[in-house]
Write a structure and sequence with these properties.
- The chain is α/β, with parallel strands linked by helices.
- Helices cover 43% and strands 9% of the residues.
- It contains 5 helices and 4 strands; from the N terminus they run H-E-H-E-H-E-H-E-H.
Length: 122
């Protein structure tokens, strides 16, 4: 089960509802989620930005994640190097994805501000 990528301090009720669902596992998307879902089956999302074996090992050992998703910032050569530097079964790899939602939400915020402040945007 995947919680929202960003959870504000007063929005933990969403995480509480998810935890009560007793899902088979949770997608951990930020450091607050690491603590909240501790002790439950979890996989680290791309937003944890795992770009090296040291980070992967830390998240797997410290927080007990089952796997982590390799960072989207890696090119093909860097991804191959990452998989060669640690056990490949530590990782999930995204081969195709849609543009993350925060890009679109941010653009909408810019449009709203531009209308309010009469700022010219591209």
């Amino acid at each position: 089960m995947a919680p929202p990528r960003i959870t504000k301090p007063l929005e933990t009720y969403i995480l509480e509802q998810m935890k009560r669902s007793q899902a088979d596992g949770y997608l951990v998307r930020n450091y607050d989620h690491l603590a909240y879902f501790a002790g439950l089956p979890c996989v680290g999302d791309f937003s944890l930005n795992v770009a090296n074996a040291l980070t992967a090992d830390y998240l797997l050992e410290r927080y007990g994640l089952e796997r982590v998703t390799a960072s989207y910032d890696l090119n093909a050569e860097q991804l191959v190097d990452l998989l060669a530097s640690a056990p490949p079964d530590w990782f999930e790899i995204t081969l195709h994805q849609h543009m993350p939602m925060f890009h679109m939400a941010n653009r909408r915020l810019n449009d709203i501000l531009a209308c309010h402040y009469k700022i010219v945007t591209r």
